[in-house]
Design goal:
The complex is a heterodimer. Chain A is of the alpha/beta class. Chain A has helices spanning 47-54, 76-81, 98-108, 115-123, 137-149, 167-182, 194-200, 218-223, 267-272, 288-296, 298-301, and strands at 4-14, 22-32, 36-40, 62-67, 70-71, 83-86, 155-159, 186-191, 203-208, 211-217, 226-233, 248-254, 257-263, 278-284. The longest helix of chain A has 16 residues, at 167-182. Chain B has 15 helices and no strands. Classes of the chains: A alpha/beta, B mainly alpha. Chains A and B meet through α2, β6 and α3 of A and α1 and α7 of B.
């Protein structure tokens, strides 16, 4: 097993100090070196709170976080030398040019502008001569990406990185992430865009109401759980009752066509169909979005989601 | 790293400081030039004779009619008597630039992801704005010196220079107090309100205590930084090292509390 670049243990943060206002509760998470880790959840799930705790911008009520094996609080300056961060809501000094901000950030890091910054400017087709106030949302995000990536940090912490980027630039971004990974960098990427996570992440954590619901490899997450099954029978079969079959849910009957969602093995379903003539059976894996919605569905909040324990060492 | 922050703070704010200095300096220059008109001084002296002594004390810091009827006294009353309020406003605006503005606009989130020690950031910016405050005073003084050169032999220039320098320690008190307020309260609007209360409260306390020095206000006056500014006394007698030390000590305390608090609290909630 490789070393964890990010490790949290029982990380808890509440706002306004009340127990009922937990922004994050008992977060146990491990992100390994060299992986692209997706951190999924809707607004208010606790993604940004986690990132701010990792960056030591805010302090936890309990629990701890370490990055590169260093305590996030005690060694925060040392840690911040080795990471690049893109906030979800990027704000910069409006009367400065992009070039000026890039130079200022480099000088605060104690370095000249890295050559890689120029490469990024070209790749992202970014005009650094304009003032920040004149940049569109997309261009501001590009500047944020340049600031986060330009010094080739060991760890990239990106909060909703493709927000506001057009599809073409999103593709460039994904290429940059793969390049970073090939370069040995680790990426911690929060998002609510499932296709983005599905496209580039190795593993993903799903967060809800400040609680970690699941950590799985993307391929496992996509293949685990349930499937959509569409059956075509030779004739309509009103007598066929599948509601009691183990693992079968959401049955929809349209004449001789039956659509359902199947969790678990096929065997109980096939046994139930044994007396009928099946013309066709189409099995479709759910998209990550559908899996995602399953996690957030109220029914599953009290049901199957409970069975999915965090598996930080799943890789 | 700290040097980069210091340089950037200066680079971004020196023009503003220059304009403040020129604006205040122009006001001072006008007051100096107008003193050439001896009729004005005579009429002012006649007017002051009809003013109750406690009002003179409140507005001019002294009820010494002989002094107030001189060009030095005129400048002490018409410029140094109120100019600290203007400098306090500059210092409050500058103090919000230490952390509050960047935090309020969300810039601090990304800026503090750089390897910056928070208390060093506060200290560096406080020092940069202290230097910029000195620049404002320096430009003001330059304008005054031009005025003095245009009306030679009228003013005690040495005392006027000292009275101008005397503005700096009290300005630093407001600068560091605003920084502390922003570090404690976190919200810019709250820091502004607290700073305004501090400035106006200090001014009123000093103002009223001068009118009624034998009441409890006379004791409480020591809590007002205006009491240690005491411009009329500086114009007459030169600087008071004790007053300057008290103001610098208060500034150091406020800055220390600000650094400690900013180092330990959550950012940008």
């Amino acid at each position: 097993m490789t070393a964890a670049i990010i490790q949290t243990r029982g990380l808890t943060k509440s706002y306004k100090g009340g127990k009922s206002k937990f922004a994050l509760q008992n977060l146990d998470l491990a992100v390994e070196k060299g992986e692209i880790f997706g951190y999924l959840g809707p607004n208010g799930a606790g993604k940004t709170t986690t990132i701010k705790l990792l960056l030591d911008l805010i302090r936890p009520e309990s629990g701890s976080a370490s990055l590169f094996g260093l305590d996030a609080r005690a060694s925060s300056v040392e840690i911040r030398k080795r990471l690049g961060y893109l906030p979800g809501d990027l704000n910069l000094w409006k009367n400065l040019s992009g070039q000026h901000v890039i130079r200022y950030f480099s000088s605060v890091r104690g370095t000249p502008i890295p050559d890689y910054a120029k490469t990024l400017i070209e790749q992202l087709e970014f005009d650094p001569t304009k003032k920040v106030r004149s940049y569109s949302t997309g261009n501001r995000r590009k500047l944020g990406l340049i600031l986060a990536l330009m010094h080739r940090p060991e760890l990239l912490v990106l909060d909703e990185p493709t927000n506001g980027l057009d599809p073409l630039v999103q593709q460039i971004f994904m290429g940059l992430m793969r390049e970073a990974q090939a370069n040995g960098q680790t990426v911690f990427l929060s998002s609510h865009l499932l296709n983005e996570v599905q496209a580039i992440c190795d593993r993903a954590a799903i967060l809800r109401d400040g609680r970690l619901l699941s950590v799985q490899r993307i391929d496992e997450l996509s293949s685990s759980g349930f499937k959509y099954v569409k059956l075509t029978l030779r004739d309509p079969q009103p007598a066929l009752i599948l509601a009691n079959v183990a693992g079968v849910e959401d049955i929809q009957v349209d004449g001789s066509q039956i659509s359902l969602r199947l969790t678990g093995d096929f065997d109980p379903l096939l046994r139930a169909l044994s007396g009928y003539y099946v013309v066709n059976m189409h099995v479709q894996e759910p998209t990550l979005e559908e899996i995602f919605l399953t996690y957030y569905g109220d029914r599953l909040a009290n049901g199957s989601a409970r069975n999915r324990q965090p598996t930080p060492e799943a890789k | 790293m700290v040097g980069a922050i210091f340089a950037e703070t200066l680079r971004r704010s020196w023009k503003t400081a220059l304009y403040w200095g020129l604006g205040i300096g122009f006001m001072a220059w006008l007051q100096i030039i107008v003193v050439q008109d001896t009729t004005l001084i005579t009429q002012t002296a006649e007017l002051l004779e009809s003013v109750p002594p406690f009002l003179l004390q409140m507005f001019g810091g002294t009820s010494d009619m002989q002094f107030l009827a001189t060009p030095d006294g005129y400048l002490a009353l018409q410029f140094f008597g109120f100019i600290l309020l203007v400098f306090a406003f500059y210092a409050a605006v500058a103090g919000l630039n230490i952390t509050a503005n960047d935090e309020d606009s969300g810039i601090m989130d990304i800026f503090l992801s750089l390897p910056v020690v928070r208390w060093q950031l506060v200290l560096t910016r406080v020092l940069a704005f202290a230097l910029l405050s000195a620049l404002v005073i320096g430009v003001t003084l330059t304008c005054m010196l031009i005025g003095f050169a245009m009306v030679p032999g009228i003013f005690n220039v040495e005392h006027m220079i000292l009275a101008t320098f005397n503005i700096l320690p009290a300005t630093l008190v407001v600068l560091t107090f605003t920084t502390m307020a922003a570090a404690i309260i976190q919200r810019k609007s709250g820091a502004m309100a607290l700073t305004a209360a501090f400035i106006i409260g200090s001014y009123m306390l000093d103002f009223l205590a001068k009118a009624a020095p034998d009441t409890i206000l006379g004791t409480l006056q020591k809590l007002s930084f205006f009491a240690y500014y005491d411009s009329a006394s500086v114009v007459q007698n030169g600087l008071s090292p004790v007053n300057i030390l008290i103001l610098l000590a208060a500034s150091a305390i406020f800055a220390t509390v600000a650094m400690w608090r900013y180092q330990h609290r959550d950012i940008g909630l």
